[in-house]
Design a protein that fits this description.
Chains A, B: Might take part in the signal recognition particle (SRP) pathway. This is inferred from the conservation of its genetic proximity to ftsY/ffh. May be a regulatory protein. Two copies of one chain form a homodimer. Chain A is mainly α. The first copy, chain A, has six helices and no strands. Chain A folds into two domains: 66 residues, Arc Repressor Mutant, subunit A (Orthogonal Bundle), CATH 1.10.10.10; 39 residues. Chains A and B meet through helix 4, helix 5 and helix 6 of A and helix 4, helix 5 and helix 6 of B.
Amino acid sequence: MEERVKLSILLDLYGELLTEKQKDVMDLYYNDDLSLAEISEIANTSRQAVHDIIKRCHKLLVEYEEKLKLMDTKFKIQQVKKCLLDNIDDLSIQGESNLEKLEKIKKYIIDNI
Amino acid sequence: MEERVKLSILLDLYGELLTEKQKDVMDLYYNDDLSLAEISEIANTSRQAVHDIIKRCHKLLVEYEEKLKLMDTKFKIQQVKKCLLDNIDDLSIQGESNLEKLEKIKKYIIDNI
């Protein structure tokens, strides 16, 4: 996975563990794709400070993932969801009542997993 | 939920974010139900230090849950799992092939969600 995409996902999963300022800087860098110079202007801080925040938080986010593996779990759940839906589609069900129930089950899976 | 049970679950979910020593002390207190005096002997530290670790880590674990809501998510997923299995049992499916497939789907849900 591209590093920028990965960091954007990690920021989404673990952003609450950062301070507001750290989260804002990381968001501007990884999601809005702004340069250090642009972020330093918005955050009213030096380019070097922005660089340090990004470096430090990058390390923190990767460490959180090593410990809690939420991104890993997220991808596994997505696979489980896809596999479940594929298996349901593979059933040869007849009868309107059953078909309706199956559609409800599929919708429930799509909405809740 | 009883506080001790809740803290045991939080420790299971967020224990990796604590230091080894913090995790060990919390484990002895919340999972093995040892007294401060017993833990201080095992951990070779003062009773006061053990008390401070438990108090600080209790706060940390609750804060992690407020931010990441993994316990909340865990319970929701358990409900989703139960609801899915109930809904599958509610289907009136006939035919050996379909019944086998449904059993496989149920086993897959039980093992993976």
